[in-house]
Amino acid sequence: MTPGSDFDNLTGDLEFPQTFGLTDSTLMPTFWLGSSGAYSVCHYDTYGVNLVVQVFGQKKWTLFPSSDEPNLYSTRLPLEESTVFSQVNFPNPNLFKYPLVSNTSPHCVLLNPGDVLFVPRGWWHFVQSTELSPVTCSVNLWLDEPEIDNGCRLREALTQFVAFSLLSSTSLDKDELLHSAERELYYSSNCGSQLLKNIKDLAITTQSETVSIFEEKKRKLYDPLWSPLVKCKFEECFSVFSHTQKEHKTSDTKTLDDKAIINAFLKADVMDLIARHLERQFC
User: pTM for the complete prediction?
Assistant: First the structure.
């Protein structure tokens, strides 16, 4: 499917601006094509809100509220701008290795053709094509709100700057720990100066607005059309990986390596502390 032909025809049928009252003509949908059983790594997007339209096939979405983050074992490695991954192997979580994950509050929904899913800001999600669907197709749109998202982008730029600085002083495999877009930036000749410029620009433009305009609009205009997601029991959502406690103790020795140290520096609360120091200079 070429961007200039069939894809344009498909996205033209998905009238995001008209349906949701959006005026930004630069909004670009993303096309997702998957096979039976294919799934994404559990993660959340650090900025923007997400609208997903299921075109054909069926997908199961499992979402976790942002308050579940302490129980989802977040990691920034491999590094991908705007994405925080969970270390838990869904759909078969290992409760011996990640015991806190059983304390999460999963919300599950099956998306069928014509369904639209609104993913709240900061919610984790794990997405899997069902076995009933040989092929699945969905189109989504991330909605940017600068009043909120510039602050999130500042924290992402800081994360990149710190990650690149720390990785450059280790022998770790950069190609393994950086996604493709990050590798391109990391190896560029002006990487440091470009990131510092981004940090300065974002620190100046960041505002203190915390209410999502889109979410407020959705509540007022579209609530009658939306069905709320229902919280599920954890054990009903996943096939829990199990083995004996003895096997766990002998096979899972904890170590503190370079990767673990770097990941600690990249935690959201650390980046938030640095960002707040920068933002105060322009208040």
Answer: 0.84
